[in-house]
Amino acid sequence: MINKLYILSISIVLFGGINSFLIGSINVDIINKIFSSITKNNAKTLSRISYLIIGICTLYLLIFQQRQLYLSFLNETVMPSSVFENEVPFFTNMKITVDAPNGKKVIYWAANPVTKDHDNIDSWQKAYMGFTNAGTAEVINNKAELSFANPVRYKVKKFFIKKLLDRHIHYRILYESGEMSKIYTQKLKNDSDIKL
Protein backbone atom coordinates (compact mmCIF):
# COMPACT_ATOMS: atom_id res chain seq x y z
CA MET A 1 0.00 0.00 0.00
CA ILE A 2 2.83 2.41 0.85
CA ASN A 3 4.43 1.90 -2.60
CA LYS A 4 1.13 2.64 -4.37
CA LEU A 5 0.59 5.74 -2.25
CA TYR A 6 4.18 6.85 -2.95
CA ILE A 7 3.73 6.42 -6.73
CA LEU A 8 0.37 8.21 -6.65
CA SER A 9 1.85 11.10 -4.62
CA ILE A 10 4.86 11.43 -6.93
CA SER A 11 2.55 11.47 -9.98
CA ILE A 12 0.30 14.16 -8.47
CA VAL A 13 3.27 16.32 -7.42
CA LEU A 14 4.88 15.98 -10.89
CA PHE A 15 1.59 16.94 -12.56
CA GLY A 16 1.36 19.93 -10.20
CA GLY A 17 4.91 20.92 -11.10
CA ILE A 18 4.20 20.76 -14.85
CA ASN A 19 1.04 22.81 -14.29
CA SER A 20 3.02 25.43 -12.33
CA PHE A 21 5.62 25.55 -15.12
CA LEU A 22 2.88 26.16 -17.72
CA ILE A 23 1.28 28.88 -15.57
CA GLY A 24 4.64 30.61 -15.13
CA SER A 25 5.85 30.28 -18.72
CA ILE A 26 2.76 30.65 -20.93
CA ASN A 27 0.00 31.52 -18.43
CA VAL A 28 -1.96 28.28 -19.01
CA ASP A 29 -3.52 26.54 -16.00
CA ILE A 30 -4.35 22.95 -17.05
CA ILE A 31 -6.15 22.15 -13.78
CA ASN A 32 -8.44 25.16 -14.11
CA LYS A 33 -9.07 24.39 -17.81
CA ILE A 34 -10.04 20.78 -17.01
CA PHE A 35 -12.53 21.82 -14.32
CA SER A 36 -13.87 24.75 -16.38
CA SER A 37 -14.70 22.33 -19.20
CA ILE A 38 -16.55 20.04 -16.77
CA THR A 39 -18.42 22.66 -14.75
CA LYS A 40 -18.46 26.45 -14.94
CA ASN A 41 -19.95 27.04 -11.49
CA ASN A 42 -17.53 25.04 -9.31
CA ALA A 43 -14.31 25.26 -11.37
CA LYS A 44 -12.54 27.59 -8.91
CA THR A 45 -13.48 25.47 -5.89
CA LEU A 46 -12.38 22.23 -7.59
CA SER A 47 -9.10 23.86 -8.70
CA ARG A 48 -8.41 24.96 -5.10
CA ILE A 49 -9.13 21.42 -3.85
CA SER A 50 -6.70 20.07 -6.50
CA TYR A 51 -3.96 22.47 -5.36
CA LEU A 52 -4.64 21.41 -1.76
CA ILE A 53 -4.23 17.73 -2.75
CA ILE A 54 -0.94 18.56 -4.53
CA GLY A 55 0.26 20.30 -1.35
CA ILE A 56 -0.77 17.37 0.87
CA CYS A 57 1.05 14.93 -1.44
CA THR A 58 4.16 17.14 -1.31
CA LEU A 59 4.09 17.20 2.51
CA TYR A 60 3.54 13.42 2.62
CA LEU A 61 6.64 12.87 0.44
CA LEU A 62 8.78 15.29 2.46
CA ILE A 63 7.72 14.01 5.88
CA PHE A 64 7.02 10.28 5.45
CA GLN A 65 8.95 9.28 2.34
CA GLN A 66 12.26 11.11 2.75
CA ARG A 67 14.35 7.97 2.39
CA GLN A 68 12.58 6.86 -0.79
CA LEU A 69 12.52 10.37 -2.21
CA TYR A 70 16.18 11.28 -1.67
CA LEU A 71 17.73 7.80 -1.62
CA SER A 72 15.69 5.96 -4.24
CA PHE A 73 18.60 3.56 -4.90
CA LEU A 74 17.81 1.98 -1.52
CA ASN A 75 14.51 0.59 -2.82
CA GLU A 76 13.82 -2.77 -4.43
CA THR A 77 15.91 -3.77 -7.44
CA VAL A 78 16.79 -6.78 -9.60
CA MET A 79 20.09 -8.65 -9.46
CA PRO A 80 20.80 -12.35 -10.22
CA SER A 81 21.67 -14.06 -6.95
CA SER A 82 24.21 -16.27 -8.76
CA VAL A 83 26.67 -13.36 -8.92
CA PHE A 84 27.03 -13.34 -5.12
CA GLU A 85 29.39 -15.89 -3.59
CA ASN A 86 28.97 -16.96 0.02
CA GLU A 87 31.64 -15.07 1.92
CA VAL A 88 32.28 -13.24 5.17
CA PRO A 89 34.73 -10.44 5.99
CA PHE A 90 38.33 -11.48 6.78
CA PHE A 91 38.00 -10.43 10.44
CA THR A 92 34.74 -10.84 12.37
CA ASN A 93 33.85 -10.25 16.01
CA MET A 94 30.05 -9.81 15.80
CA LYS A 95 27.07 -11.87 14.62
CA ILE A 96 23.42 -11.05 14.22
CA THR A 97 20.53 -13.09 12.86
CA VAL A 98 17.99 -11.41 10.58
CA ASP A 99 14.64 -12.56 9.25
CA ALA A 100 14.71 -13.24 5.51
CA PRO A 101 11.37 -14.78 4.53
CA ASN A 102 11.45 -16.62 1.20
CA GLY A 103 15.02 -15.45 0.62
CA LYS A 104 17.87 -17.36 -0.96
CA LYS A 105 20.76 -15.21 0.27
CA VAL A 106 21.37 -12.01 2.18
CA ILE A 107 24.07 -9.55 1.18
CA TYR A 108 25.26 -7.23 3.91
CA TRP A 109 27.75 -4.46 4.61
CA ALA A 110 28.78 -2.20 7.46
CA ALA A 111 31.28 0.62 7.92
CA ASN A 112 34.90 -0.48 8.20
CA PRO A 113 35.98 -2.20 11.42
CA VAL A 114 36.75 -0.26 14.58
CA THR A 115 40.44 0.14 15.43
CA LYS A 116 41.91 1.87 18.47
CA ASP A 117 42.56 5.12 16.61
CA HIS A 118 39.86 4.85 13.98
CA ASP A 119 36.37 5.90 14.99
CA ASN A 120 34.14 8.95 14.75
CA ILE A 121 34.79 9.53 11.03
CA ASP A 122 33.42 12.65 9.32
CA SER A 123 31.86 11.11 6.16
CA TRP A 124 30.21 7.89 5.01
CA GLN A 125 32.68 7.68 2.09
CA LYS A 126 35.63 7.32 4.50
CA ALA A 127 33.70 4.98 6.77
CA TYR A 128 32.92 2.50 3.98
CA MET A 129 36.08 2.94 1.87
CA GLY A 130 36.90 -0.37 0.19
CA PHE A 131 33.79 -2.09 1.65
CA THR A 132 35.99 -4.51 3.59
CA ASN A 133 33.27 -5.25 6.15
CA ALA A 134 30.79 -6.97 3.81
CA GLY A 135 29.61 -10.47 3.05
CA THR A 136 26.90 -12.84 1.87
CA ALA A 137 24.95 -15.37 3.95
CA GLU A 138 22.66 -18.28 3.03
CA VAL A 139 19.05 -18.14 4.20
CA ILE A 140 18.10 -21.21 6.24
CA ASN A 141 14.55 -21.54 7.62
CA ASN A 142 13.82 -17.90 6.73
CA LYS A 143 16.79 -16.62 8.76
CA ALA A 144 20.34 -15.56 7.90
CA GLU A 145 23.33 -15.20 10.20
CA LEU A 146 25.52 -12.21 9.37
CA SER A 147 29.14 -12.24 10.59
CA PHE A 148 31.11 -8.99 10.52
CA ALA A 149 33.51 -6.79 12.43
CA ASN A 150 32.20 -4.12 14.79
CA PRO A 151 31.87 -1.04 12.50
CA VAL A 152 33.16 2.46 13.13
CA ARG A 153 30.76 5.28 13.90
CA TYR A 154 30.66 8.11 11.40
CA LYS A 155 29.07 11.50 10.90
CA VAL A 156 26.65 12.62 8.19
CA LYS A 157 25.53 16.14 7.40
CA LYS A 158 21.88 16.86 8.20
CA PHE A 159 20.68 20.39 7.57
CA PHE A 160 24.22 21.83 7.82
CA ILE A 161 24.89 19.98 11.09
CA LYS A 162 27.12 16.91 11.41
CA LYS A 163 25.28 14.08 13.19
CA LEU A 164 27.09 11.05 14.62
CA LEU A 165 25.23 7.90 13.60
CA ASP A 166 24.77 4.86 15.79
CA ARG A 167 26.65 1.73 14.72
CA HIS A 168 24.61 -0.17 12.16
CA ILE A 169 24.66 -2.75 9.38
CA HIS A 170 22.79 -2.72 6.06
CA TYR A 171 21.43 -5.73 4.19
CA ARG A 172 19.31 -6.81 1.26
CA ILE A 173 17.47 -10.09 0.80
CA LEU A 174 18.01 -11.85 -2.55
CA TYR A 175 15.16 -13.97 -3.85
CA GLU A 176 15.18 -16.91 -6.32
CA SER A 177 13.53 -14.67 -8.93
CA GLY A 178 16.54 -12.34 -8.97
CA GLU A 179 14.69 -9.59 -7.12
CA MET A 180 16.37 -7.88 -4.20
CA SER A 181 14.52 -6.33 -1.29
CA LYS A 182 14.92 -2.72 -0.30
CA ILE A 183 17.89 -2.01 1.95
CA TYR A 184 17.22 -2.77 5.61
CA THR A 185 19.29 -1.20 8.39
CA GLN A 186 19.86 -2.90 11.74
CA LYS A 187 21.14 -0.76 14.63
CA LEU A 188 23.94 -2.23 16.75
CA LYS A 189 25.09 -1.57 20.30
CA ASN A 190 27.14 1.60 20.71
CA ASP A 191 29.46 0.36 23.42
CA SER A 192 32.16 2.91 24.07
CA ASP A 193 34.33 0.09 25.43
CA ILE A 194 34.97 -2.07 22.38
CA LYS A 195 37.11 -5.12 22.95
CA LEU A 196 39.55 -5.54 20.05
How would you sum up this structure, described in words?
Helix 1 packs across helix 3. It contains five helices and ten strands. A hairpin with a 2-residue loop joins strand 6 and strand 7. It has 196 residues and is of the alpha+beta class.
Structural class: alpha+beta
> What is the rounded distance between the termini?
45 Å
The proportion of residues forming helix, as a percent range, comes to: 25-40%
Main beta-sheet strand count, sense and barrel state: 4 strands, antiparallel
CATH top level of the largest domain is Mainly Beta
Shape: elongated
CATH topology of the largest domain: Immunoglobulin-like
- Can you tell me the CATH architecture of the largest domain? Sandwich
Question: Could you give the order of strands across the largest sheet?
Answer: 4-3-8-10
Number of domains: 2
Supply the number of helical segments: 5
Question: Quick one: how many beta strands?
Answer: 10
SSE ordering: HHHHEEEHEEEEEEE
Radius of gyration, CA atoms, in whole angstroms: 23 Å
- In the predicted model, the low-confidence regions spanning at least 5 consecutive residues are 192-196
